[in-house]
């Protein structure tokens, strides 16, 4: 899906996703001191707004102008401020100072574009900064609930670690992998709770 496809999907009066953050985000940032953060491929901005409410200075980036506008509205409704940028995660130029936190949640791209987005994510990290990525795991296609049904847009923790390693070499930085795992996510449906299978990777830039 390109920007126009996502613009069409987000062109609703209500949020496509609930206004609450992804269930993994609070857990993964609980031990971090709020600083600067970027929500890369922020969609409708729910994670960016939640981070702003926790005291982070947040930038939300997405190539969907409709999604970004909904994020801006959500921030206003929650009484917080954030910087909103319409840009592609595969080519966005982050500020040279970088961010203390880079969040990438459910960015659905084929392998080549995904690797480019991970390059952007690593470039966005300040030294000492943390990158948290959550995505639809490949196993979800056969054993989980929901998510993309095209394996082109699914991933594994190994895929992301490989992408990050390539970015590490290219950018001459040093990363420490803190988590690289498959995780279950409970999804409420009309037929009861179902389990989706996600990939979660957390890394810290040390140099």
From TrEMBL:
It holds the Pfam family Methyltransf_25. InterPro entries: Methyltransf_25, SAM-dependent_MTases_sf. Gene3D superfamilies: Vaccinia Virus protein VP39. Residues 38-129 form the Methyltransferase domain. The keyword Ribonucleoprotein does not apply. Keywords: Transferase. GO terms for molecular function: transferase activity. This is Unannotated protein. It comes from freshwater metagenome.
